[in-house]
Write a structure and sequence with these properties.
2 copies of one chain form a homodimer.
Chain A (H helix, E strand, L loop, with lengths): L1 H10 L4 H8 L3 E5 L4 E3 L7 E7 L1 E7 L5 E8 L3 E2 L2 H6 L6 E4 L3 E7 H10 L3 H25 L2 H11 L1 H6 L2 H8 L3 H8 L2
Antiparallel strand pairs in A: 1-8, 2-7, 3-6, 3-8, 4-5, 4-7
The first copy, chain A, binds a DNA duplex through helix 9.
Amino acid sequence: MNHFFQHLNKFVSVTDQEFQEISTYFEVLSLDKKECVMLAGNHCDTNYFVLSGCLHMFFTDERGVDRTVQFAIENWWLTDAQALYHQKVTDFNIQAVENSEILVIKSDKERALLARFPKLEIYFRSIYQIAYGAALKRMQYIFSYSKEEIFFRFREEFPEFVNRVPQYLIATFLGLTPEYLSKIRAK
Amino acid sequence: MNHFFQHLNKFVSVTDQEFQEISTYFEVLSLDKKECVMLAGNHCDTNYFVLSGCLHMFFTDERGVDRTVQFAIENWWLTDAQALYHQKVTDFNIQAVENSEILVIKSDKERALLARFPKLEIYFRSIYQIAYGAALKRMQYIFSYSKEEIFFRFREEFPEFVNRVPQYLIATFLGLTPEYLSKIRAK
DNA sequence: TGATTTTCTTAAACTAGATTAATTTTTTTG
DNA sequence: CAAAAAAATTAATCTAGTTTAAGAAAATCA
């Protein structure tokens, strides 16, 4: 919970007292590795914040292969932003990569929270702006470089990450097969 | 300008009087086809809103090929969100695909605007949330389908768009070569 | 500790899509 | 309208990365 308080305060000023009230809008949840919090086919009305551990959001493609579209480690928010915004059914799953502690907030609570503390709009605007910028950067990588280069640049930039997460998840996140990733690493 | 007023009012309530004041933060700019408003290598401190026409944001990859990462038509915002947020140099260009009318706002003005009208945080949070959601959806498409399928699905979903924008721009946006796009269309 | 499950590796055959290069069609412009 | 520039097509060649299939290593669990 403390992580979240600190993260909030990077973007807006929140007093201890305010945070006391803010935290009543959330639930804390402990997840075991492989446990899921969001399932394809369900209505998406929840947003998740990672206190510790690691989650990933993935979907199952037409041939039955799981593809990770987003990882989230400490201090990251994760949800199907589109489905959440439009109150639609999602076709993504969110699953714990490691044992994790997360904050959970339903979208009606989130709306109430924002109404009660308008300055948190600034916080969420920043979060989404950063996430959107990162997504465009990722597009740029995918279009710019060969798969081999994408992997090496990714490992360069996020070494802790590559050590922490199973290789085959990294592979689908970067858009290559585990076999090919294994091959290019064997140099 | 009217387009912008209507777009704002889809997300927050803004009176005519308020809008009068809001509009003083913006500049209106007319662009000829092919004209650029953002250039790789420059500091990114501006955000753009398309009133009419069409822009695209692209970068030049290592081999000198231009790659579109984002289109923007009427009622879309466009900028390098990451560079804007961190006040960094951008490596994207923004160029008019057609003759266009756009709104321009510098980031210091944008900050001032948000300070003056806090409810606009809601507007921008929504904009970025939607854009982020769309970016993840696009990742999903790119990883799910063959390039051939990506094109046909894209054309299915945005037919006006495909008719309006040169094919070779669509091609780099979808991550395939103009030659291959031409080939798969020839069926 | 041994058994089971999960993750990673290796190698051969195959193909979607890139590359190259030349030509045609369409659009723009003076 | 003719000339130039921009956009689209075609076809042959080539390769980065996938697929398939099987085995090895590591991690988990009872």
